[in-house]
């Protein structure tokens, strides 16, 4: 079980959170110009590194805010998340 540090609510059990995938994935500038193959790559292909990885999480049971944190995928060590305003 992981203890995830919500920037607003403090450390909480991982069952309170919703995983949002890789952080920093830019939305296509012109999505209508993408081929089906390009669109599927945008939707489904993500990095899967061994080591520190930026992830998006939402505190579903608490403040319901999204935030980015860095987690080591080999050890599950979590680096504290910063408070950022996201829409």
Please provide a written account of the structure.
The protein has 87 residues and is mainly beta. Helix content is 10%, strand content 33%. The strands form 2 sheets. It has a 4-stranded antiparallel sheet, with no helix packed on it. Strand 4 (52-58) and strand 5 (66-72) form a beta hairpin. The chain is globular. The mean pLDDT is 91.
Strands ordered across the widest β-sheet: 3-4-5-6
Beta-strand percentage range: 25-35%
Largest sheet: 4 strands, antiparallel
Number of helices: 1
**What structural category characterises the helix and strand content?**
mainly beta
What is the H-and-E element order?
A: EEEHEEE
Shape designation: globular
Q: Distance N terminus to C terminus?
A: 28 Å
The gist of it:
The chain has one helix spanning 36-44, and strands spanning 3-6, 10-13, 18-22, 52-58, 66-72, 78-79. With 87 residues, it is mainly beta. A hairpin with a 3-residue loop joins strand 1 (3-6) and strand 2 (10-13).
Descriptive tags:
87 residues; mainly beta; 4-stranded antiparallel β-sheet; two-stranded antiparallel ribbon; 6 strands; globular
Annotate the secondary structure layout:
Elements: E1 3-6, E2 10-13, E3 18-22, H1 36-44, E4 52-58, E5 66-72, E6 78-79
Antiparallel strand pairs: 1-2, 3-4, 4-5, 5-6
